[in-house]
Amino acid sequence: xxxxxxxxxxxxxxxxxxxxxxxxxxxxxxxxxxxxxxxxxxxxxxxxxxxxxxxxxxxxxxxxxxxxxxxxxxxxxxxxxxxxxxxxxxxxxxxxxxxxxxxxxxxxxxxxxxxxxxxxxxxxxxxxxxxxxxxxxxxxxxxxxxxxxxxxxxxxxxxxxxxxxxxxxxxxxxxxxxxxxxxxxxxxxxxxxxxxxxxxxxxxxxxxxxxxxxxxxxxxxxxxxxxxxxxxxxxxxxxxxxxxxxxxxxxxxxxxxxxxxxxxxxxxxxxxxxxxxxxxxxxxxxxxxxxxxxxxxxxxxxxxxxxxxxxxxxxxxxxxxxxxxxxxxxxxxxxxxxxxxxxxxxxxxxxxxxxxxxxxxxxxxxxxxxxxxxxxxxxxxxxxxxxxxxxxxxxxxxxxxxxxxxxxxxxxxxxxxxxxxxxxxxxxxxxxxxxxxxxxxxxxxxxxxxxxxxxxxxxxxxxxxxxxxxxxxxxxxxxxxxxxxxxxxxxxxxxxxxxxxxxxxxxxxxxxxxxxxxxxxxxxxxxxxx
Length: 530
Fold this sequence. Notes:
With 530 residues, the chain is mainly alpha-helical.
């Protein structure tokens, strides 16, 4: 990153520690939209044959780029078969692109070729890669501020960035939001702001385009910044014709070719994603919040105790930085227009916010040391609690499932996750073709008002659903995994079918609805004799 080796080493060490101290789950997407897709791509083919042509993956033979990519995918054994792994409904409907999972699929394949595809390495190496990128993003943010202001201000921005509990919680996760935020930090360091010595139109536009390919909503915070760049640019036609258009065509074209190979047809996933989440607003299927949620809960929680320093920094900062303030306000307003809201959606505004927090600390003078200690202590507790304790059961239970792979009766073993859908990872955290099933909850895209997904049907009457689904004992899975809140309701079924509790795992101190404080693993007694 062009900074002192000591700074880079510090960032790498802290993000490495960060990675090790985050042992909890956040949201299903960190597995189901990244690692599960990558695992299926890398490991779902017979090793004796890696020909994409024989498997019916239809790639255009006349295009040089497609031929090159086909050769690469043949080498990686990236396939479109369904014998090992699972893809969620988003992938069946072309709402997600393969560009981001391809990074992890490549890592998985390298590990396999080196005969190092141990399940723990498959879990931790992708996260370590994210930690490495996060460290470089931290250093890039420092470099930006050092060039815009001075080394002292840069140090305080760097301190605020490393202190942020939400950054600590999120930056080593395999989420598209995480990669979107990292690319935003990289792009910001090259943004041609007046006074910046690092500005490069090509570099920042390429990074923004990559972020948009990975997650189309990444464009939102950049809309005011790109318009500001266009407004101040003297050679406007040159900017559009020789920079914006070529960068856009190359990145979108590459994304199209990658997705063409995987889907077997031309799919513009960015358009499908925006159509589903913005135009049709079907994200409300996963919950809705009032319009003011990001202002009253979202941003205050994500910023935590940085909030007063952010406000103070916005007031104190020179006018030339107002474009960064506009990017934050615009992004929060834009996301407020959508009914479905999550904390992680506004994660990409944090690098902008940390700039103003650091600027605030630099201006404090007298209270600076006290403020720094306050920030450190008030962020340390939530960072450690959310990273080590809150919602850890979803990952801990997979360690128990992994043990079934080492068992001599793996072919007879089967696991049924009777939990809210996607509560746990899947094959990426097991790495063996174990029979596994979970309650599914795809939204209805046909407009059927009477549609009820499998998970809802189950929870409407769990006992009746189980008796109907497993009318014969031969259909029963060897292991059931449930949240503690479900146990009492299905206890008669568990007793009648000969299940006994084999493990109890802590999950959360704040159980809500169908998510209990603990996760229980039940095993059929009859299976113990195998």
